[in-house]
Amino acid sequence: MWMRDGDSCRSRSRxxxxxxxxxxxxxxxxxxxxxxxxxALTFETPLVCHPHSLLVYPALPAAxxxxxxxxxxxxxxxLITSQGYEKLLRALFEDAxxxxxxxxxxxxxxxxxxxxxxxxxxxxxxxxxxxxSKEIKRLKSVLTQHGIPYTKPAETSTSAxxxxxxxxxxxxxQLRGDPGLRGNTL
Length: 186
What we know:
Elements: E1 2-3, E2 8-9, E3 12-13, E4 15-22, E5 27-35, E6 38-45, H1 53-56, H2 62-76, H3 82-96, H4 102-110, H5 122-145, H6 158-162
Parallel strand pairs: 4-6
Antiparallel strand pairs: 1-4, 2-3, 5-6
Helix pairs in contact: 2-3
């Protein structure tokens, strides 16, 4: 991240670039001055080791941020194993509402989920469509805000939606970008 408009230095303002990297402890690892009044700093911290840390962490309430800080520190201090770290992080994401608890996922799958794919009336179908469109717009906005590219899925015919349903092997499914936390990986 760049910090501009610092103190006056000759004919311009001082500038600093701080690079956050994964490390076992919080420490300033490297400082240089690549050009006059421009500084480059490398700061190591366990807080950025997780691939989702810079997207999720700032959006968490302070109490959950403190919990995550402690989990990262415990891992760095080797007080917990990587398996324990993953379990604690999953619990934290569940408490934040970013992941469903395993019981919720299983009951939603067995019970057909909160919403069925069959609608009683055209009005209820239109209402669900409007809500889903609104959610898609919100999610696109979040992706754009974080600079994450997204592509529009290929159009499918109505018959493809109404055709027979075949199970999908989620383990073999290939996704673009960061797959995030999936299945029982934690």
